[in-house]
Design goal:
Layout lengths: L38 H10 L8 E7 L3 E6 H7 L13 E6 L5 E4 L4 E2 L6 H6 L5
Antiparallel strand pairs: 1-2, 1-3, 3-4, 4-5
């Protein structure tokens, strides 16, 4: 009795096959999917790009014991190189907002990224094309 091997893995959200798949996917009708840029990229850009004032940004994160907390981006930069007690894992970051106008520039839950225009922000930015 021959058993058939089936692949139960979900397909790629972009409608692309695996890297070793040589099939042509030009006929796929799946919607395009824009990945949200990781918070690491956003933080590094806010710190190192001279176009941004890092003291104007606040990181809101979820503390395991104290709940929702806020920390200035400049202080965040210092705590990255600190002791284990002061370390805040990046997966706990909920969103980043600009202090001057309270505009949320990166939000994991709502998939907003106004720094790199990834996630849902890219579609909002290009909405005028429709």
């Amino acid at each position: 009795m021959a058993s058939e091997k089936t692949d139960n893995r979900p397909s790629s959200p972009k409608g692309e096959g695996s890297p070793d798949d040589n099939s042509n996917n030009s006929g796929d009708t799946e919607p395009t999917y824009n990945r949200l840029r990781p918070v690491t990229d956003v933080i590094n850009r806010l710190i190192w790009d001279p176009a941004f004032d890092s003291s104007n940004y606040i990181i809101i994160y979820e503390d395991r014991f104290e709940g929702r907390m806020e920390v200035n981006l400049d202080i965040w930069r210092q705590t990255r190189e600190s002791t284990d007690e002061e370390f805040i894992p990046q997966h706990r970051i909920l969103y980043i907002k600009r202090r001057s106008d309270n505009d949320i520039i990166w939000d994991r839950r709502r998939r907003i990224d106004k720094v790199f225009l990834s996630g849902n922000s890219a579609f909002d930015y290009l909405a005028f094309l429709n």
